[in-house]
Amino acid sequence: MKKYVWPFLALGLSYCQEKAVPPAPVLPVPHERQIAWQELQFYGFVHFNMNTFSDREWGFGDEKPEQFNPTALDARQWARVAKEAGMKGLIITAKHHDGFVLWPSAYTEHSVKNSPWRDGKGDLIREFVDACREYGLKVGIYYSPWDRNHPDYGKPEYVTYMKNQLTELLTNYGEIYEVWFDGANGGDGWYGGANEERKVDKRTYYDWPTMHALVRELQPNAMMFSDAGPDVRWVGNEHGFAYETTWSNLMRDSTYAGMPDFDKWASGQENGTHWVPVESDVSIRPGWYYHKYEDHKVRTLPDLMEIYYKSIGQNSSLLINFPVDTRGLIHEKDEEAILKMAAKVKEDFAVNLAKDASFEASEDRGKGYEPTNLNDGDFNTYWTTSDGQVQASVEIDFGKEVSFNRLLLQEFVNLGQRVKSFSLEKEVNGSWEKVAEGTTIGYKRILRFADTQAQKIRVNFLDSKDIPVISEIGVFSAPALLFPPKITRTPDGKVNIQAAESDLEIFYTTDGSTPEKGKNAYSGEFDVVSAQTVQAIAVDPTTGNTSEIALVEFDLPKVSWKVASSDEKSVRAIDENIHSYFTTENNNFQVDLGNTSELTGISYYPMQARYPSGFIADYAVEVSENGSSWKEVARGEFSNIAASPIEQYVRFEKVPARYVRLKSLKTTDGNKATVGEFGVITR
Ligand code: FUL
Ligand code: CA
């Protein structure tokens, strides 16, 4: 600034007050529609469609419109819950893989118009859109490219069908903020009765260039989601977790390879050519669709907070799913969970300790870019340095000693994502001590660390692609969370309950009743040798605060079971530890239960590992009383197991069995079937 002053002295002081030259952008930078979208950060998914009624995760495509029959559908309830939870929009499954559509499309009979709901006169997209508008929520559309119902799937005609339907959806319902193209593609299906396997090349089959152009033409502001963009990309898992290092930059053109390669681009790329930010999607229950048997598996508050910090806190937007139930409502338990999360987020960020602190930077760029921009609550004002000053630091003086455990940073990414490494220090007796460190920042980064006290702290920007350009720095003290205890069982039926901290008390039940403070204290292992539900709470004896309930449904203990295999590692499939696994020799997993029991189902936990293999995709279950004559009791697919390797259940008519065989008819990757944990169900 100073060096430009003298030639203009004659123009008077006002000229000196002009802003310094803004920093040059570092490419790639977000498009306007991405800038508008990144502010939303938190929005919801509604998975509600045919699967809700067929009790599946992926329908086969042979379902009948008559099956779609919600009894008390109220889209306004969904919108109210989303709004109260602080969500800025909702995205609905207009068409899932089974092909059934929620609006009276002119291009198919497989739709609500042939269902009993609203006597076939209903249009659920209309009701959804109206409810969202009423509550001030943005409207998003999930449209599955894969269609297991359509007879033409795999042929060019189907791509025309897709364009026609998208045209209906993007023309008739007003402004759409996000169009969600699911990455799951091709495979077996009903396909109008053909009942066969149809593989497509998802990069070329759908004619993406024309498809994208169509969406742009009809909804210029809509963000298009898919595994790799073009506008927003998948985080690469369904846990809702982004990565400590998360770049919004992506080599978009070379990464549209889809899932098999997602490890290569899940974190983005520092030198990525395009701006394709991350969205973390996760369901509030294990499944995306509603299943009554998951009513007790709604995510706990600590789970949801972990998701919050690992998505929004790691440069990602967060998309939490509600599996709307068969009534057509967000289940009470899901509502309770999301509202608890919203309240906790508010609580964690209630007071920004940096709001009234004084900020001093090692250097600034001049007028308009001072460190006072860092705590004005405005993303669009920022502090930055002179060209070339890539390393810089900001000191924050609270005026008195404060206690804190969160640091929030926002980069002004409208000029490109830059920071590669930063640290937080506090002043202790005149010298600096490291508290925490991080890599990328992006739109928002939140660091969590143990409670720490200081009057002065310093944020060091250690390495950046160019000068750091920072919008906001916040410091918070989030109240501690009480975690529900962990309930585990050994193969011989000994149940152990553990609280996250040793000074907490535990109370539990085994009879299905709700555990209560002061009633039935846990004092050590106990036996659970039949199908029983164990529930427990942790209580802080000093404050009296109680955790949420932990609940585990145990079935028969596995101590006398034998896997039919000479491989000693086979016990790892029945060791009550989901993190150990067994690779089958011939895709058959067979167990001798030691004696005959009345079985109503089996459970299969796929291998839980960073690089898993051999997930069973198609299965058959056979049982035997004597080990020589066998009977098939179930056959089907473990839908969506590749993207979401959660525990799978197979239910069948009650049958006496001593021997059980889980046969893998197909694995997701063609490798030998693996088993993380196998169990039987007798209840
Ligand atoms: C996946 C789908 O296969 C799931 O069923 C679900 O819709 C999830 C959001 O995306 O790819
Ligand atoms: Ca600011």
Average pLDDT level: 95
Strand order of the largest sheet: 1-2-3-4-7-8-11-12
Largest sheet: 8 strands, parallel, barrel
- Which word captures the global form? globular
Terminal Cα span? 76 Å
Any low-confidence stretches, pLDDT <50, length ≥5? 1-14
What is the structural class? Answer: alpha+beta
CATH topology of the largest domain: TIM Barrel
Count of individual beta strands: 33
The CATH class label of the largest domain is Alpha Beta
Q: Determine Rg (CA atoms, Å).
A: 28 Å
Number of domains: 4
CATH superfamily descriptor of the largest domain: Glycosidases
Write the layout of secondary structure elements.
Blueprint: H1 13-16, H2 32-38, E1 42-47, H3 50-54, H4 75-84, E2 89-95, H5 124-134, E3 138-143, H6 156-171, E4 178-181, E5 187-189, E6 196-198, H7 208-218, E7 223-226, E8 232-234, E9 249-250, H8 252-255, H9 262-265, E10 274-275, E11 278-283, H10 301-311, E12 316-323, H11 332-348, E13 358-361, E14 383-384, E15 392-411, E16 419-428, E17 431-438, E18 445-464, E19 469-476, E20 486-489, E21 494-498, E22 505-509, E23 526-527, E24 532-539, E25 550-554, E26 562-563, E27 582-583, E28 588-605, E29 616-624, E30 631-637, E31 648-667, E32 674-675, E33 677-681
Parallel strand pairs: 1-2, 1-12, 2-3, 3-4, 4-7, 7-8, 8-11, 11-12
Antiparallel strand pairs: 5-6, 9-10, 13-15, 14-19, 15-18, 15-19, 16-17, 16-18, 20-21, 21-23, 22-24, 24-25, 26-28, 27-32, 28-31, 28-33, 29-30, 29-31
Protein name: alpha-L-fucosidase
Domain F5/8 type C: 342-478, 589-683
Keywords: Glycosidase, Hydrolase, Signal
Textual characterization of the structure:
The chain has 683 residues and is of the alpha+beta class. It has four domains: 32-348, Glycosidases (TIM Barrel); 358-476, Galactose-binding domain-like (Jelly Rolls, Sandwich), CATH 2.60.120.260; 486-554, Immunoglobulin-like (Sandwich), CATH 2.60.40; 562-681, Galactose-binding domain-like (Jelly Rolls, Sandwich), CATH 2.60.120. 15% of the residues lie in helices and 32% in strands. The chain has eleven helices and 33 strands. The strands form eight sheets. It has an eight-stranded parallel β-barrel with strand order 1-2-3-4-7-8-11-12, surrounded by four helices. The chain is globular and about 90 Å long. Residues 1-14 have low confidence and may be disordered. Residues 342-478, 589-683 form the F5/8 type C domain. It holds the Pfam family Alpha_L_fucos. Keywords: Glycosidase, Hydrolase, Signal. This is alpha-L-fucosidase. InterPro entries: FA58C (IPR000421), Galactose-bd-like_sf (IPR008979), GH (IPR017853), GH29D-like_dom (IPR059177), Glyco_hydro_29 (IPR000933), Glyco_hydro_29_N (IPR057739).
